[in-house]
TrEMBL record:
It comes from Clostridium scindens (strain ATCC 35704 / DSM 5676 / VPI 13733 / 19). This is Uncharacterized protein. Transmembrane segments: none annotated. SUPFAM superfamilies: PRTase-like (SSF53271). Residues 199-232 form the Phosphoribosyltransferase domain. It comes from the Bacteria. InterPro entries: ComF/GntX_DNA_util-trans, DZR_2, PRTase-like, PRTase_dom.
């Protein structure tokens, strides 16, 4: 471990004391034993949708209802947990209450649970889903970027947090219906002029609902020459 890394981790512990990112209680292990048991209940088991990774009812089905009726621009992806408590409350604290250190734990779980999939995808770049500049200034950080950077460090893969940008300040997806979500994200993303396309990109975000955000980002990447686009998220919804 480098001296700079030690300084960085000491600063993190000073700014954000070691607490369980799911219940907020002090825990030297990060995720406490009680919450670990709750997370196991939300962990997505097989059978999974081969496209988005949501749980499906029957082994003989390959895709969830949403992916069976939707063309996705991304190739496939995975999520750590279903979007229920305590995951949903943890992500809320991470995004809106400056609990940036939670992102370190999410990335650690991604690296441990999905190491084989990430190696199989073999991404040339990890790219976080961006926030619009106005929202990022208000929040002070991009939560997806925190997870992506830590994941890249753990997997030894480069992270590009500048090339993909959100050029229009879209409305929060959770407030919109399915059709409105697609329209909301149409032309939302742009790539910097200096972006050099690579064969494979791994997108990272906090929550997957319908997949419209991932699709919009994957679409512009593929139009620029990227061949394969995969994704990882902390949680995924169900019901689409």
């Amino acid at each position: 471990m480098t001296i700079l890394r030690k300084i960085y981790e000491t600063a993190l512990r000073w700014l954000w004391p070691e607490i369980c990112p799911f219940c907020g209680k002090a825990s030297s292990r990060g995720i406490c034993g009680v919450c670990r048991k709750e997370l196991e209940k939300l962990k997505i088991q097989e059978p999974r949708c081969k496209r988005c990774g949501k749980p499906i009812a029957r082994m003989e089905k390959e895709y969830c209802h949403d992916c069976s009726h939707t063309h996705h621009h991304y190739d496939s992806g995975l999520a750590l947990w279903l979007h229920g408590k305590p995951v949903s409350t943890s992500i809320y604290q991470f995004k809106y209450h400056n609990q940036r250190n939670f992102g370190i734990w999410y990335a650690r779980e991604m690296a441990e649970q999905f190491a084989l999939s990430i190696r199989r995808w073999d991404p040339d770049l990890i790219i976080p889903i961006p926030l619009h500049s106005t929202r990022k200034r208000k929040r002070g950080y991009n939560q997806a970027q925190i997870v992506a950077c830590e994941l890249g460090r753990r997997m030894g893969m480069p992270v590009d947090a500048t090339s993909l940008c959100r050029r229009i300040p879209t409305s929060p997806q959770k407030t919109l219906g399915h059709r409105e979500r697609k329209a909301n994200l149409r032309k939302a993303f742009a790539l910097g002029r200096g972006f050099v396309p690579v064969p494979t990109v791994l997108l990272v975000d906090d929550i997957y609902t319908t997949g419209n955000t991932m699709d919009a980002a994957a679409d512009i990447l593929k139009r620029a020459g990227v061949e394969k686009v995969y994704f990882l998220t902390i949680s995924i919804g169900q019901g689409y």
